[in-house]
Amino acid sequence: MSWDNIIGQSLQVNILKKSLAADRLAHAYLFSGPEGIGKEAVAFELAKQLNCSQRSPDPQKGSCDICESCLQATAFLHPNIEYVFPVESVLLDQIDPSKSENKKFSEAKARYEALIEQKKRNPYFTPVMERSMAILTEQVSDLQQKAAFMPSGGGRKVFIISQAEKLNQSAANKLLKLLEEPPKHVLFILVSSRPESILPTIRSRCQILKFSRIKPAEMEAWLSAACPAADEDILRFIVSASRGNLEKALDLSRSITDQAAMTLPGLELRNRAIDWLRNLLTPRRLQEAIRETEEMAKNLSRQEIASMLASLLLFFQDINHRRIDPRWEGLNNPDLESSVIRFVQNFRKPDFYEVSVATETTIRSIMRNANPFLTLSAYAIRIKQLIAG
Ligand SMILES: [Zn+2]
């Protein structure tokens, strides 16, 4: 059932299914491979299946997705499933409510929860707290304590350690101790896109499962099922812009299909984005563009900024099409045809592929809580350089 939700990775999934069927799962895995290809999605599916209360004896079937346990797992509330990633140390401090530090704690907690929310929406998302460099010792101590208790509901405890290369030294040593004498009822899944940075002694205690890049055809099939409303060109564009990264693809497809729904506020945002772009590229109107950038960063939500940028992506796509084929009729924004033509005439050299990549990177940064003004300013400089030289 839920294994069907995993895109690609059939080789890796089959290895896990076979081990499950033979009841021969390793006690610790290291899922390695590039970012955004579904390593954690597979880890969560395995954790869900091990705890599903209506688990079929046939491991091919996966979890039921509807029992209490599966629902808890999907909501990140399962008592047997721990998800660890680098967090800000203030989250782990003992907090005295009478101190002003408490405010810092609750702010950090809100940031943490926002990341978990994002993870729920996008299983390929890798949460990163801006002010955090490492997985801290306290986080592993917490796992150590939790490992001492038997799992509830007859399932199995699963500890998923995201970005395992970021374990700090003492956290890594603590984890090593756990891995040296692993409790039978705990399954460790370390996930890393830089496994070479993990202590060799930890690596050697894990069964390594290497994940591969998603093939364009697999991604296109998945996207067309996920966004039935999007047309083929947009899908192909997302596939090429995301370069096998499912996290990017899902973010992009959402921004673009939201945009494609083109409500009136969406249309206003699009027009504002195009005006901003025009000002940016017209030397005597640069001041206006800077003012507008400040204004956007101050008054728009992250979603609105992302939506503006997504509409620029579609505009760039139109320019690119028209540059290659001046008679191209399938414009995303037929009402902007004259602007598209002017762009093609005025800016002959730019690599709109690079422009698109810069745009989608900026969308992701904005959605990942980067400072809107700094991010938009850096983006402005970058595309001005790419387009106008
Ligand atoms: Zn279930």
Automatic annotation (TrEMBL):
GO terms for biological process: DNA-templated DNA replication. It is an enzyme of class 2 (transferase). Gene3D superfamilies: P-loop containing nucleotide triphosphate hydrolases (3.40.50.300). It holds the Pfam family DNA_pol3_delta2. The keyword Nucleotidyltransferase applies. InterPro entries: DNA_Rep/Repair_Clamp_Loader, P-loop_NTPase. This is DNA-directed DNA polymerase. One of its GO terms (molecular function) is DNA-directed DNA polymerase activity. It comes from Prosthecochloris aestuarii (strain DSM 271 / SK 413). Its EC number is 2.7.7.7. Coiled coil: none annotated. The keyword Cell membrane does not apply. PANTHER family: DNA POLYMERASE III SUBUNIT DELTA, REPLICATION FACTOR C / DNA POLYMERASE III GAMMA-TAU SUBUNIT. Keywords: DNA-directed DNA polymerase, Nucleotidyltransferase, Transferase.
